[in-house]
Known about the structure:
The protein is an alpha+beta fold. The protein has helices spanning about 5-15, 40-55, 115-130, 185-190; strands at about 20-25, 30-35, 60-65, 70, 80, 85-90, 95, 100, 105-110, 135-140, 145-155, 155-165, 170, 180. It starts with 6 loop residues before the first helix and ends in a 7-residue tail after the last helix.
Amino acid sequence: xxxxxxxxxxxxxxxxxxxxxxxxxxxxxxxxxxxxxxxxxxxxxxxxxxxxxxxxxxxxxxxxxxxxxxxxxxxxxxxxxxxxxxxxxxxxxxxxxxxxxxxxxxxxxxxxxxxxxxxxxxxxxxxxxxxxxxxxxxxxxxxxxxxxxxxxxxxxxxxxxxxxxxxxxxxxxxxxxxxxxxxxxxxxxxxxxxxx
Length: 196
């Protein structure tokens, strides 16, 4: 393989050889996330169900989608693939390139931490803020918290509120409906069942 390949081409090459892994480019770095486990997927199902129950995806203005790439302004090939997003319903007409979509179409992105929580809690915060993503939610399975970041400003968010089990979190109305999340239930869904 040629050394002069772009990171996007390298990501594609690796993706062909590692099914299920997620490849993102942020700040000029190629980042790899292994395939998610079942509890990770359960969280996404539960959050998606809450959004659908609230009326998102039913009014022709928004859609709830998993694993749709957002183009980032932090580098020429930079993009991220959030676990879950609420986007404008006409997002298909806003593709930038390489199956990545204009960040202005994203109302919220949600990430569920995996083996490296620093990726979601650190690296992605300035990237999503720079892209102007209005709401960034992190389900932090490592520290048992749900983080809600709002009001992007430069390379950060002006408001960052961690929520503990026992709290009911109302997501900002700007996402298109009144969505509430039970932190304890969301975090419980993300716990691996002990065998034996």
